[in-house]
Amino acid sequence: MAELAYWEAIRRAHDEEMANDPMVIAIGEDIGVVGGTYKATSGLYQKYGEKRIIDAPISENSYTGIGIGASMAGVRPIIEIMSINFALLALDTLINAAAKIRYMSGGRVSCPIVLRTPGGTAHQLAAQHSARLARMFMSTSGLRVVTPRGAMDACGMLKSAVRCNDPVIFIEHERMYNMREEVPDTEYFRPLEGAEIVRKGTDITLIGYNWSFILCMKAADMLAKDGISAEVIDLRSLKPLDRETIRRSVEKTHRVLVAEEDEAAVGTGAEIISVIIEDCFFALDAQPVRIHAADVPVPYAANLEHAAIPDEHDVYKGALKVLGKI
Amino acid sequence: MKAADQKRLLREMIFFRRFEERCFEAYMEHKIGGFLHLYSGQEAVATGVLEMIRRGQDYVITGYRDHIHAIKTGAPAREVMAELYGKDTGSSRGRGGSMHIFDPTVHFMGGYALVGQPFPLAAGLALACKHKGTDQIAVCFLGDGANNQGTFHETMNMASLWHLPVLFVCENNQYAIGTRIDRSTAVVDQYKRVCGYNIPSSQHDGQNIETVIDAAAKAIDHVRSGNGPYFIEFLTYRQRGHSMSDKTAAYRSREEEVEWAKRDPIKLYSEKLVKAKVVTDADIKAMEHEVLNEIENDIVKFAEESPAPKVEDLNKFVLDDSPDPRWIGPLQNS
Lengths: 326, 334
Ligand SMILES: Cc1ncc(C[n+]2csc(CCOP(=O)(O)OP(=O)(O)O)c2C)c(N)n1
Ligand SMILES: [Mg+2]
Known about the structure:
heterodimer; A: Rossmann fold; B: alpha/beta; 6-stranded parallel sheet; globular
């Protein structure tokens, strides 16, 4: 086992998949000569050449569309969009084309693309670099949406995403690229579907994904000091959602909190709490709580940004609220 | 061109016209739903260009006015009609309808409703051909209106930059719904618009099928020989409204329609072939008769008699229906 940073894990997945299958290519802005804004493809241009690591002009909708078109004819593109904010320019081709082509063609044409993009808030990047749009993709039929929480899933899930026959929106996180985690030295895959109970507990279920999962883990440590045993679930896949794992956990703990970095309205927390109400309402002993961002465009000033975006203390306090302790 | 080929092309165009006009009737009878965009008047463009590709190998993609492009590429006309009828035997199993005909078995990669969306998809198909090192090409048919989308400019840039084997066919029928081209577009000669991307281009009469064929042959040869993309513009005219609800009177004159009717591609070609003694008027009558018979007694019959998709299958085709558990899981919690 070696420790890899999240970005190194992404890079390793590219490298292994490109070595494995000549049909795998990567396309994105500054991914080649520069090696990627977050280094996720560094060195691969030198190794695989400009035909397979393609530096694209700043035309998100059309280079994503080119990837989708190529995927319809047997190529397996990994498309990088520098920030999920810029993916808004590619929504036509992602939502109107990639997500719908299999269905509209009666299952005869598929679009096996992976669209990788960092989708959280970093530090003081202000409103136009801090959108968290997972919920928008999560509500689109025909897409898969995954959110790896660390190097292990980042590498293993990216490899699975490349081999999967569906369009996969692969949401990374600016604050996580340098986080390190042990991963096997030999090739491994991690499945795209299935939430994971990462920490077992009995008193409350904390549910998060990528960054908000990390907040849940930190909050669980804080709760443990108070003698509270929190179970922590990493959703891993926002679409499809693993309702079964959520239900089983809530039936055990009877209390639940959902954390997301995004605004609340029509969001991940809203969806998950609806699912819980539909699947196991009578298992609940307390009102669920959502921890989420303030309903504002993300501000620049550090103190305002801090106030707008949830942290582990917010999750901790939210859990105490569910437990009736505040 | 050989007389037999000329005769076949004329018959094909007659077939395409009758197919579309039969769709019109079926729509009026409420057998076809949704939006229906007919190709009548523009037949020489798709028939001529697609005559010259390697059908089944080259990739073809277009917008929502797609029935004829699909059939000429090789999609069975029965299945196209069944699709319009929303049947399970349709090209897209009844999931797409008129605007979304697909037949990947002949590399017809779809009709798309979003104006301009196929530009990058076509370039992507071409990128795949190039990546595999074959001499296949991609052919993208779109209207004049589509050239005002950002995807036009973005895609022309990348197609040129990366020397992609893609032929862009602009069917300039002068209108985008009811907006005449000079009211929407600063440069009305569409072939000039790709100069800024260093893509060779030309403009031709789209009503004369042999002109289309000659021009397409050169353009296709250019693209197939590894010279990168080519943009070819054909001047043409749609005889019917944009879609079934459009009556055209608000935006174009009767005189204009009459002028263009004189240059109907089927009329022009019939006259030419009669004059050259390739066919007689009686031959044309016989063709019309045969074609109507085939449409009615084979194609429409097939569509009418086919079963509707099963409601139990509503959720099929959203994602891969038989995914590999190695990649998909689900992950098991201990
Ligand atoms: C993105 C988008 N905007 C608007 C429309 C509505 N619309 C459908 S067809 C059309 C006109 C397109 O004209 P043109 O490209 O010249 O094609 P034609 O119909 O003449 O063949 C418009 C505006 C659409 N379908 N998609
Ligand atoms: Mg037009």
